[in-house]
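re: ur question from earlier - yeah i can do the single chain one, its not a big deal. heres the input i used so u can compare w yours
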Amino acid sequence: MGNLILMGPPGAGKGTQSVRIAKLMGLVHLSTGDLLRDAIKAQTDVGMKAKAFMDKGELVPDAVMIDMVMGPVRSAVVESGFVLDGFPRTLAQARALDKAFLDEGIEVRAVVHLHCDDEVIVKRLSGRRVCPVSNQVYHITDHPPKVPGFSDAAPGVALILREDDQEDVIRRRLQVYRENTLPILEYYRGARCVVAVDGLLPVDTVTELIMNSLQVK
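and the output i got, formated as C-alpha cells:
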C-alpha cells in the first residue's frame, strides 16, 4: 500500500496518527525517537555512534541518523511498508533520505502534514500534567484529574509540568520547527503528493481525513 512520511509541529498528534494510520493500512510504524532509544539500548554500532554525540550534548549527525533509519526501513519495506514518524527534520536530512531511498529503489507514496495554529498548540501542551509514578497524562482543562493537581492513579502524588511543556520551551520548539522543518514541505511538494490535514480536529476526524486523502490520491 506504499510508504508514508508524517510531519507536523510539536503537539500536532503525529505519534497518535502515525500509529493509527499504520494499523489501518497494515504498515510498520517507525518512530525515530523509539528507533534511537532502541539502538542505544541494544548497543548497536549506529546506536553507540549516536550515543557518543548525545553524551557530549551534540546533535546526532545526519549520516548517523540516516544509517539508523534505513535498517528498520528496509525491514518494513519487505514486510508491508512504513509510516515514518519524526524524520526527516531538516532539509538536509530530507535530501539525504531521498538519496538513500533512491539508491535502494524505495518509493514514498505520500507525505502527510498535520498543520496547527501555534497558539492552540501552546495551550494544548502547556496545560499537560503528568503523574511521575504512572506516567499518566492529564490536561488542566481538557482532561483534569479528579483532585486538581494530583494523580488519579497514585492518590496524593502531585502532578508535574514537564520541561518540554513549559510555554517558553514550546514556543522555541515551534520556532525551530518553522525554521528547519517547514522548508521540507516545499521540497517534497516538488516531487511527491503532500496531504495537508488540520491536526487540531478531533482525533477520529483527523484519521478519517488522512485515510480519505490517501485513497483519493
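Helices lie at 14-25, 32-41, 45-55, 62-79, 91-103, 118-126, 167-189, 203-216. not sure if urs matches, ping me
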